Amino acid sequence: MTKTKTVYFGAGWFTDKQNKAYKDAMAALKENPTIDFDHCYVPLQNQYKDIRVDLHPEYLHDIEWADATYHGDLVGIKSSDVMLGVYIPEEEDVGLGMELGYALSQGKYILLVIPDEDYGKKINLMSWGVCDNAIKMSELKDFDFNKPRYAFYDGAVY
Amino acid sequence: MTKTKTVYFGAGWFTDKQNKAYKDAMAALKENPTIDFDHCYVPLQNQYKDIRVDLHPEYLHDIEWADATYHGDLVGIKSSDVMLGVYIPEEEDVGLGMELGYALSQGKYILLVIPDEDYGKKINLMSWGVCDNAIKMSELKDFDFNKPRYAFYDGAVY
Amino acid sequence: MTKTKTVYFGAGWFTDKQNKAYKDAMAALKENPTIDFDHCYVPLQNQYKDIRVDLHPEYLHDIEWADATYHGDLVGIKSSDVMLGVYIPEEEDVGLGMELGYALSQGKYILLVIPDEDYGKKINLMSWGVCDNAIKMSELKDFDFNKPRYAFYDGAVY
Amino acid sequence: MTKTKTVYFGAGWFTDKQNKAYKDAMAALKENPTIDFDHCYVPLQNQYKDIRVDLHPEYLHDIEWADATYHGDLVGIKSSDVMLGVYIPEEEDVGLGMELGYALSQGKYILLVIPDEDYGKKINLMSWGVCDNAIKMSELKDFDFNKPRYAFYDGAVY
Amino acid sequence: MTKTKTVYFGAGWFTDKQNKAYKDAMAALKENPTIDFDHCYVPLQNQYKDIRVDLHPEYLHDIEWADATYHGDLVGIKSSDVMLGVYIPEEEDVGLGMELGYALSQGKYILLVIPDEDYGKKINLMSWGVCDNAIKMSELKDFDFNKPRYAFYDGAVY
Amino acid sequence: MTKTKTVYFGAGWFTDKQNKAYKDAMAALKENPTIDFDHCYVPLQNQYKDIRVDLHPEYLHDIEWADATYHGDLVGIKSSDVMLGVYIPEEEDVGLGMELGYALSQGKYILLVIPDEDYGKKINLMSWGVCDNAIKMSELKDFDFNKPRYAFYDGAVY
User: Fold this and answer.
1) How far is C2 from chain D (nearest CA, A)?
2) F109 HSE (CA, 13 A, CB side)
3) Nearest beta carbon to residue A75 from set C146, C148, C152
């Protein structure tokens, strides 16, 4: 029986490009035989009391909501095997950046997944340095999560 | 004699707004009697071999340059007393995000400084959670770095 | 096949109430299908050379015994998936407190389990803050250790 | 000029014995020439919005108060040089236990101070193991915080 | 079905004695039913671009090769369950030493395996302290990696 | 007034070459105006109960001695500002290796100092990767410990 791993699914949902990458990455993980899809942590499905602040802006100033959602995501990172960042070079995201830094501190394997058409474009130096590997979206479904290895991003850094 | 502390100066230099905030924050630190300005770490002044990749795009693919600059910044964070993030709500930056996450892992006090006119605007949930305090630019020159305390950002989070 | 997780079994054995909670929690774990009971770490079963200092007070000053038992427990925490604290509000324990703090540093999911009749009573602020979730004893046998999530203790803090 | 260090002042204030030890330890620190007393972190003086929950029990269920006070104390530990625990063997405290575990993760020197009349009495194994040294109250005013060293507690452990 | 664990295989390949111990340890792991041999990380099989610097001395000054191989090994340690050190008392190795220190920071169970004929000989104090257990080569094939426990090296330290 | 920093003095004392480097490094630190020499931690001066095991081989099997000396050195690393490794390429030492790994986990600036005549010789890959900078012995007396920066070893790695 193949062993399976869990990932923290770090990805944005604010632009069309992000939404497409989000769906593509989810589909690839579902297909990947080394992934335990049911037990992966997806932040959008774990907001406090199932309240999405983008739909309920009255929670923008709610400390309890913010605090619980923030800690929920940290729990997601520390209790998953891998930190996955769906990464769009021209739409970089400060929240994903912070998650990558936290994942480093928790000893997680950090994998960036970049849409094929964007692969090679320049990315931020700190994202470049913190990741253990950066692959194309089309490679995700076959990535062997039981053999996490180190490689450089085959693209530019700024 | 007043004790002084050092900061890692996390700030962007890519837009007009960032450049203004950058200069304002530097001026405030210089004025602050609890800051050892000469020994603060300023990333822009510490790029590998003094090569700025924004001016020398031929280094965009240079692994040695990237690696040394990345590690230089990590050294800056771990060997400073405080992680300072000059934070502009509508121009959030993935690199600063990663630095904040790394600073958390190194046990640094994390302070966000936001231009007065932007203070209160919504910021990313992970930045909200990782910082120990978030103040206005005009408060920076008088902030007592010998009394680092915890407080919530008095603004919105998304 | 259901995946299973291991826990470090943090619990006291010094009072009647503790002994009852200890047995209840052990029984619940045994029943829980997401727990690998045989490979959980139970401190009381792992004291150095099988010497229980409560029964052999001549070891109260034995540095070798103390050091090995202390490190044994740290190994138990770092090599288990989850830090479980059987927590009795009115009989709080400094040793469990320290284990909770260490578990935080090792990136473990931290779960407090409180006897149903004590659930809601006030607990120490630091225990409140360090745990990722706090549940009732009666919920333990059905808790899904493959879906560790964050929630606030539904009770008081002092 | 003598260098000075800051401590996080970990101590209870719930019993007469604790209150006496609290005052004795504060007095000794004030006298100690290697301590920067003004910049030490004293939890009781740093509760959120200056609200003491023992005097204002209506805050027992206030998540914002609890969360801010909890994180305030963590900031106190990570931004002080030393973790000081005023430790009373027969009145051990779960909150101090958790602080000791967190201090371990932040790389702090951990010093227990025990009232002279209680020194030697048995203490919890985890407190025994986590501290770097354990001294008598009467030794605190002369302890050289610029020469933090390791030693075993000269007493019993259970 | 028996659970299996992965190890980072820390071992030298520079002397006859090291090569023999290397082969013996690999054979024992292969036989051990609690080991997932295929997913263990073996540094010698993971040098950057499959270039062995001992065979290709022209890479002795290549920063890209060094950096990638170094980080590859760190990834191997952080993404394996256990840090295994094949340890030869009279041929101690600084690289293994650093790996042991890093494994400590990543919360790994640290196991030293010493050839039977060398077991008991004096080892360096820091290796003595950092390991969670030290066993004989002949015990490796039966070691239960699902029950990692703490014990002292039954030999000398200097 | 110049700020001063403390170092953990990692160095061997087992061969003539080590002893010479030891003395040279101590002399350079004493001369360096950015060093607080009196508060640096020198392991050889901090062995438990002032017992040197090389002179008293009857302590080779003494767990209390070993444990206290080991933890004493860890305290020395975590409570100093900088990890200094006096490093001799052809006489590498497993104990120093472990100290370097531990220093990484404690967020210390890691500086290797290599005798001038050995500078450039090949060093172990893990030492190469873990250090933040590697300088010549003759540069130590003028090294600015208030400006710790990152640089690659200007020599070979194996």
Assistant:
1) 33
2) 27
3) C148
Q: Name the closest residue on chain D to residue F5, using Cα atoms.
A: D3
Q: How far is B123 from chain A (nearest CA, A)?
A: 9
Q: What is the DSSP string of D102-121?
A: HHHHTT-EEEEEE-GGGTTS
Q: Is some CB atom of chain F closer than 8 A to the CB atom of B107?
A: yes
Cα(D82)–Cα(C130) distance, integer angstroms: 21
Instruction: Work out whether strand E82-86 and strand E7-10 pair parallel, antiparallel, or are unpaired.
Output: parallel
Q: Would the CB atoms of D75 and B132 count as touching at under 8 Å?
A: yes
Which residues from chain B sit within 8 angstroms of residue F152, using beta carbons?
A: 64, 68
The Cα–Cα gap between F46 and F76 comes to: 9
Chains in touch with A (≥3 Cβ pairs < 8 A): B, C, D, E
Whole-structure pTM value: 0.94
Contact assignment for B94 to A93 by CB distance below 8 Å: yes
Q: If DSSP codes are grouped into helix, strand and coil, which group holds residue E135? A: strand
Task: Check the CA dihedral C80-C83-C84-C88 and report its sign.
Answer: positive
| Other Cβ atoms within 10 Å of F64 Cβ, number | 15
Neighbours of E46 (CB within 10 A): 17
Largest CA distance in chain D: 48
ipTM value: 0.92
- Helix and strand tally (H, E) in chain E? 4, 4
Binary contact (B92, A94; C-beta < 8 A): yes
Dist. CA C75–CA C80, nearest whole Å? 8
Is D91 in a helix, a strand, or coil?
helix
Vertex C11: Cα angle to C5 and C17 (nearest 5): 130
Coil, helix or strand at residue D83: strand
User: Of the candidates E109, E146, E152, which has its C-beta nearest C39's C-beta?
Assistant: E146
For residue E80, give both structure tokens: 């394996």
Q: Are A103 and A8 in contact (CB under 8 A)?
A: yes
- The rounded distance, in Å, linking the Cα atoms of D83 and B64 is 40
- State how far the alpha carbon of C18 is from the alpha carbons of C31, C92, D91, D156, in Å: 20, 10, 18, 23
The beta-carbon neighbor of B70 closest among A94, A129, A156 is A129
CA-based nearest residue in chain C for residue E147: C39
- Calculate the average pLDDT of chain E: 95
Chain C contact for E19, CB < 8 A? no
As a whole number of angstroms, the distance between CA F125 and CA F155 comes to 11
Pick from B96, B129, B77: nearest CA to A126: B96
Task: For residue D109, give the nearest of F36, F39, F75 by CB distance.
Answer: F75
Q: What is the token pair recorded at E58?
A: 């022209």
- Between CA B25 and CA F54 the distance in angstroms is 55
Backbone φ, ψ for residue D9 (5° rounding): -90, 90
> Could you give the CA distance from residue B3 to residue F9 in angstroms, rounded to a whole number?
26
What's the pLDDT tens digit per position in E51-104?
888 888 888 888 899 999 999 999 999 999 999 999 999 999 999 999 999 999
* pLDDT digits 0-9 by tens, F19-65: 999 999 999 999 999 999 999 999 999 988 888 888 888 888 888 89
Q: What is the H or E stretch that residue D43 is in?
A: none
- Please state, in angstroms and rounded to a whole number, the distance separating the CA atoms of residues C67 and F67: 8
Task: Assess contact for E21 and E138: CB atoms under 8 A.
Answer: no
Residues on chain E touching C39 (C-beta within 8 angstroms): 3, 146-147
Instruction: DSSP letter for F41, please.
Output: B
Cα distance between residue A39 and residue C129, in whole Å? 25
Q: Which residues contact residue E17 at a Cβ distance below 8 angstroms, ignoring those fewer than 6 apart?
A: E88, E91, E115
Residue of D67, D69, D105 to mutate for A, most A C-beta atoms under 10 A: D67
Q: How far apart are CA B86 and CA B137, in angstroms?
A: 9
Query: Residues 111 to 140 of D: which have CB under 8 A from any F CB?
Result: 132
